[in-house]
Amino acid sequence: MNLYEALRMAANGLLGNRTRSALTMLGILIGVSAVILLVAVGNGASVQINNQVQSLGANVIYVYPSNARGSGGVSQGFGTGQSLTQADVDALNSKQQDPDVLAAIPIAQSGGQITYGNQNYFAPTTGTTPDFPQVRNYQLAEGSFFSADDVTARHRVVVLGQTVVDNLFGTTDPIGQTIKISRQSFRVIGVFAQKGGTGLGSQDNVVVAPITAVWAYLTGARGKVISQIVASASSAGTVTQAETEITTILLERHQISDPAQADFQLQSQQDILNQATSISTALTLVLGAIAGISLVVGGIGIMNIMLVTVTERTREIGIRKAIGARRRDILMQFLIEAMVLSGLGGALGIAVGALLALEAPKISALATSGFPTPVVSPTSVVLAFCVSVAIGLFFGIYPANRAARLHPIEALRYE
Amino acid sequence: MITLEGVTKTYRMGRIEVPALQGIDLHVGRGEFVAIMGASGSGKSTLMNILGCLDVPTTGRYILDDTDVAMLGDDQLARIRNKKIGFVFQSYNLIPRTTALHNVEMPLIYAGEGGRTARAREALGAVGLADRVNHQPTELSGGQQQRAAIARALVTNPAILLADEPTGNLDTSSSLEIMRLLSRLNAEQSRTIVLITHELDIARFASRVVELRDGRIVRDDTNAK
Fold first, then answer.
1. How many CB atoms lie within 10 A of CB A315?
2. What is the mean pLDDT, run by run of 10 residues, along chain B of 225 residues?
3. What is the pTM of this model?
4. Is B89 in the A-facing interface, judged by CB distances under 8 Å?
5. CB-based contact (8 Å) between B157 and chain A?
6. Are A102 and A232 in contact (CB under 8 A)?
């Protein structure tokens, strides 16, 4: 018996009871479309997180002060240390011991109310040096970034992110305007191009000023604190070398021989990316697993219906056996029937799931809430189809085997 | 063609053993038309099942066309049924929702043989159903269904044709039509036919009548035509 005949028999069997076949298929259809849709949402979240992390700047390495320890050895929390200095930054920029570090910039953070005219807005102010756009991967939309001279002379100039501009200026051109940060006047000399991305601290909600000006006018009493150093490696492939070089330089400069006692810690973009990826992978798996349960329920539906079908068609099985069907032929017939049922349900489920995934971003309520755009991966489509056929096989074996083992005489006598 | 030697068949109903056949010796030669008669409970259905290789004897030998089939397994029996036996049942037993043509093709599909459609059409033509090939069983009369079943039984060119009460569900004229067809197949093509019936009128078409009672052969006559 060849495949064509087997498929023809299966089609004949399934068409004999259309409503029942359709309802059974619906079970698999719902399961598969749920898997496709939820995995697509998970993938979408992955892509979104990935883009966001990438937009922070490629090849970036963060250096944080370690947790400060009080007299009793009590840890005072992440980033509370003050172990990083401008001299560290200069050393990292010297490029003699660290050829793989392209540039390093100090970061000093300050909060504060920002006002322009009668508008006010709250955004963190970042004090840094002229390499900031290069290291953090920012483009300027208007104006220019501040220079080394501005840093030396503590000029009160700022470059704003798009979100800040929108909130303070509306349609007014911000270049040349004076804003007040914590009641100190700063002149706007540039605006960053939009980086996009939502959630997780928008990259467009930034105010950047020379670090010396931030120290002098904003952080005040806290002194010349550097909350982190951001360095960029020469390429994605040299991030690991760059990290080693930075560690070596800083350990040497801080006169620490045991790396375990280091008063600073490094985190690369890759680390963050890995963390984010593992979270979103876990998310995708959980979503997939939940949807997978409905697939199993669909499979049980197939088994149920196949058992009913086998009982109903006992006489037909007897006739087939009488005219020469072997066990294998009967087994194949019902297995293929179950697989056609689940495979067809799976194919339709893929179509429905993919359609829902494509249409979801068009629902405005979802689009504005920062819901990730679902990404239907070809792998999940192929996998979903194979799994649904496999479900037909798995849940079809028991009923098909039951049919194949029927005794021809008893089957023929069945009314 | 067919030789039964000391064939017995005992069924177990729980703890009770029910002897259905108690030592049958029977020889049917090529081209014979044998009617097996007997009241219900005489063992004729059991004999039919054994002759049709649907069941195996408890003891004794059954040689069909030089093959001892008493000791064969399920799949080997299926093969014998497919190649050497053509069944015609009382209730036609065509596969529902399947055209006459596809029904007749079915044994060839299981045999994995080629030229199926042509051979099936030819077999249907031989029983006078050439114009009904694409009809489903529900679209055929009882007589037509039984003729399609005969075509299906003959399409593999089997050694014997086993007909179990083939006219049991038919009216008189259709019965006559079917019996004439069987007679013609026997006379023109030398088909070996074993017919099971309890009606004397029907048994009269055969050239030899074997009567069973309580699992034994009590009469074996050659009909004078």
1. 17
2. 92 88 93 93 91 91 89 89 94 93 94 91 94 94 95 94 93 94 92 93 92 93 70
3. 0.75
4. yes
5. no
6. yes
